[in-house]
Write a structure and sequence with these properties.
The protein is mainly α. The chain has ten helices and no strands. Helix 1 runs antiparallel to helix 6, helix 2 packs across helix 6 and helix 3 runs parallel beside helix 9. The termini are close together.
């Protein structure tokens, strides 16, 4: 554990750890309700706010607020998101445009692989729900679990980064703002305002990200954007993940 003693506790890393704790707390609350009465979660999803605010209404507000936060101009989000903005783009002098094109093609191919894997994986849960084996409460619990996993991927380990994308950190991640779409994929299968409003808003976030990527790919590659280079990083949110990987490699 000595390798963790000299981690640089940046402001952004501390904030991420705080948000990770919040997600653990939210997951725990929903999991307790889920274990007590899974069917009650589905009832709460359909309950009008006119009958009072319940835990599912609070969850919806949290989820929706986070997504809207990603659609508005925001200087407080991570550089992993802000790299898409013109104001933080610092071009590399005389960068190789052909190399940028190769990078974009490679990353797009990897991104499509991630999408295929994710949709195929979640199609299983959707089919089980349509067959009546799973209920809406199960899919909500799965969504909250994905909400927690989002920060596990950022701070501890990301299977998509390791297995498919091969990006060195979240700040360089091609699919960073796909997170909401991936979180709320299970909500597609539930015909309900609560579920569909989350899923289709997440789709808007994803499409917005993809449009910017298609128009300005130079902002997303460290070879053409100095902001993304390690030497210029002020957030250092990758430290724990890299230390864990090194510790695993060293046995």
């Amino acid at each position: 554990m000595k390798s963790f003693n000299n981690i640089m506790r940046t402001k952004k890393l501390n904030f991420y750890l705080l948000k990770f704790m919040f997600r653990i707390f939210l997951f725990t609350v929903v999991f307790v309700v889920y274990l007590h009465d899974c069917d009650n979660l589905e009832m709460l999803m359909h309950q009008s706010i006119g009958y009072g605010i319940n835990v599912v209404h609070v969850i919806w507000f949290v989820f929706m607020s986070i997504m809207i936060w990603h659609l508005l101009p925001n200087k407080h989000l991570s550089m992993a998101w802000r790299k898409s903005k013109e104001e933080v783009y610092v071009p590399v002098d005389n960068y190789d445009e052909l190399e940028l094109l190769r990078y974009v093609q490679k990353q797009n191919l990897a991104a499509w692989k991630v999408m295929l894997v994710w949709l195929s994986f979640n199609a299983v849960f959707g089919l089980l729900y349509l067959l009546g084996i799973l209920c809406a409460g199960d899919l909500l619990m799965l969504t909250v679990f994905y909400f927690l996993c989002d920060y596990i991927c950022i701070l501890l380990f990301c299977p998509f980064q390791k297995g498919i994308m091969k990006n060195k950190c979240c700040i360089n991640c091609r699919i960073y703002d796909w997170g909401h779409f991936m979180m709320f994929t299970p909500m597609l299968f539930i015909k309900n305002f609560f579920s569909w409003s989350l899923f289709f808003t997440s789709l808007v976030v994803l499409i917005h990200w993809e449009i910017v990527y298609a128009k300005h790919p130079e902002r997303f590659w460290e070879g053409s954007n100095k902001t993304l280079q390690c030497v210029n990083c002020r957030e250092k949110t990758c430290q724990i993940k890299k230390r864990l990987a090194t510790a695993k490699k060293n046995g």
